[in-house]
Every structure is written in C-alpha cells, then in structure tokens.
Amino acid sequence: MFFNSGYLLFVLIPGMLLAAFAQWRVRSAFEKYSQVRNLRNLTGLDVARILMQNEGLQHVQINQIPGMLSDNYDPRSKVMNLSVGSASQPSVASMAVVAHELGHALQDSQGYMWLQLRSGIVGIANIGSNFGWVLIFIGMALGAMHSSGLGWNVAMLGVLLMSAAVAFSLITLPVEFNASARARQMLQRNGLLTAQEAEGVNAVLNAAALTYVAAAAQAMLQLLYWVSMLLGARRND
Q: Were both Cys, which of 9, 65, 73, 209 would link to 104 (CB 3.0–4.6 Å)?
C-alpha cells in the first residue's frame, strides 16, 4: 500500500545516482587541486587571515576540526570551522574552501537575506526531514483503518514539515552560490589568484555547488512521492 516500484524508479535510484555523482565530482576536484600548490605558498589559514584582515571579518574565529570537506561557518557563534587539510595545505583547493566559508561570514556580517531566512527555518526543516514522512505514513495508516479525518490531518502535518525541509534545501542554493561568488571576488580583490589558480578554484566551487543541487532534487523527489501516495490513498477512500 505504502510502497511501489515507482519509488525505486523515480525517487530512490535517481536521487542516489545524482548524490553519488555530486560527491564524486567534489571529491575528485578537491583531491586534484589539493595537489596543486598556490603561487604564494599560502596555507588555508594564511588565506583566511589575509581575507579576514582585508574584508572586515576580524571578528570571525577559526576552529580546526577533523575530517575531509567538513568545513563550515556557524553564523550563531561567528566561528569558521576548517578541516585540518584545508587549514594546513598551501593548495588551490584550500584557497577555494576557506574563501567559500568566509563568503558565508561576509553574508552574515552584511545581513544577507537568504542566509537569515535559512537560519530562521533550520529547526523546523530538521524536524521535517527526519519525521515528516513518518507522519504521512502514520496518517495514511490511520486513514486506511478509520474513515475519520484524523489520518488526513496527521498526513497533512507531515507534508507541511517535509515542505519546510524542501524549502530549506531550495533556499540553500542561492546561499551557497552567492558564497562561492563572494569567494571568487575576495580572492581576486586581494590579488591571491593567478589565471590558472582561478580555474582550479572555480572547479572546486562548482563541484561543491552540485552537491547542494543534488540535495534539493532529492528533497523535492521525496516530497512529490509522498504527496502522490497520499493523494492516491485519498482517492481510494
């Protein structure tokens, strides 16, 4: 009743393939340009200090964390978390990653609307991504057992929560694209890029952007699948 081959063909398999391709692209680009030293032999930390000093981001704190491609910026604590590889390597890939995270810091300091909106819905989006489909499933089960509107109401709550998760993934796209654009501008504005290095930075940033596109596509496919199942069950009542 709650599962069919359409889920495999139109949701699970395409989503997994797109996510796997995006992850391969970003890891491939990062590994390639991690082996390419930048002309000034600047580590990620060196690049961060130069950009923070010249772009008015001295208030941002830097924290080193383990892992690969685990770098992130936390707008609540104003902390940029850099993986050890990104912080310590004098590579073109490190320049791209660090500049991208400082792009988020610049968004935060300038009150970038999409970043503020994303931060505002992150809580409900997390709930929606984890429990939205559960409520839809429970609602459909209740609807199958009882003729009352309770099941429909529970399922619709699940749809709303999943919609918040989809909205979060869609809002993430302009946030990430804009952070990458700011990263390129900051590196160029501060004279840190040669033409060859710019090519590598673009490759790393574009590959990373694909992972967010894949995540948004997966979220939308999941929502569409559950809504179609819910509507089908509704018609059969």
A: 73
Tallying the residues shown for the chain, one arrives at 237
Its pTM stands at 0.89
Q: Residue 119 in contact with residue 129, Cβ under 8 Å?
A: no
Q: What are phi and psi of 207, to 5 degrees?
A: -65, -40
- Residue 55 CA to residue 98 CA, distance in Å, equals 13
What pLDDT score does 1 carry? Answer: 47
Q: How far is 159 from 213, CA to CA, in rounded Å?
A: 21
26 CB neighbour count, 10 Å cutoff: 21
Report helix, strand and coil shares of the chain as percent, to nearest 5. 75, 5, 20
Q: Which of 31, 55, 101, 197 is catalytic?
A: 101
Q: Are 165 and 219 in contact (CB under 8 A)?
A: yes
Q: Is the dihedral of CA 39, 40, 41, 45 positive or negative?
A: negative
For the chain, helix (H) and strand (E) counts, in that order, are 8, 3
